[in-house]
Design brief:
Distance between the termini: 9 Å
Helix content: 40-55%
Strand order of the largest sheet: 5-4-1-6-7-8
Largest sheet: 6 strands, parallel
Strand content: 15-25%
CATH superfamily of the largest domain: HAD superfamily/HAD-like
């Protein structure tokens, strides 16, 4: 991949584990609908296998309050720091993510903003993946052609499909709840699939 100049990463379930705030939300749902946590968890997993954002489906179906997402409980995946540190020595590193306000600050708190050259986040830009325009914006600010860029993310619908359509290379990281997404078409198939970010570094170095 001698032509690659930029590697863009998603944040949630790619660089950062959302497991703790996600489980907290499931406990809130279980309490609100008066069902055992395990039953709610099973329902949510099944919904993700059906390519639906399970916790939101249950919240809408039951008409319950959606509490604040506890981003302070997110944790950097163990492999993320070393992956970004190593890749940043050879490539420019960017972020394209659907996030609540303050993405750059949170990445700084996680200790990895120093490796990242560009942060494009939905809350600040008013655009959300899979909208093509957020990818176009990132590439424009990076002064990078699609064929010279890679998108690394956990979501087939938000990361892989739109980036492929742009002409970017794609890497699917099978972490978080979207690992249950079963690819059924060429459009959904990433160029590479990995289980964690340690494998991403190995692909490009």
């Amino acid at each position: 991949m001698d032509n690659i100049e930029w590697i863009f990463f998603d944040v949630g379930s790619t660089l950062v584990s959302e497991e703790k705030p996600f489980l907290h939300r499931l406990h809130e749902i279980a309490e609100a609908v008066n069902e055992p946590f395990e039953m709610i968890q099973d329902k949510v997993i099944q919904l993700y296998k059906e390519k639906k954002k399970g916790e939101y489906v249950l919240i809408m179906d039951h008409g319950i309050e959606r509490h604040r997402w506890r981003s302070e409980d997110e944790e950097l995946f163990p492999e993320s720091y070393e992956c970004l540190e190593r890749l940043s020595k050879k490539y420019k590193i960017g972020v394209i993510a659907n996030q609540i306000p303050g993405t750059a600050s949170r990445l700084e708190e996680h200790g990895v903003l120093k490796f990242i050259d560009l942060v494009i986040a939905s809350a600040e830009e008013g655009l959300e993946k899979p909208d093509r325009r957020i990818f176009e914006l990132a590439l424009s600010r990076a002064n990078c052609k699609p064929e010279n860029a890679v998108m690394v993310g956990d979501r087939v619908d938000n990361d892989i499909v739109p980036a492929k359509k742009m002409g970017m290379k794609t890497v699917r990281v099978k972490q978080g709840m979207w690992k249950y997404w079963e690819v059924i078409s060429e459009d959904e198939q990433a160029d590479y699939e990995v289980d964690d970010l340690s494998e991403v570094a190995a692909l490009f170095l």
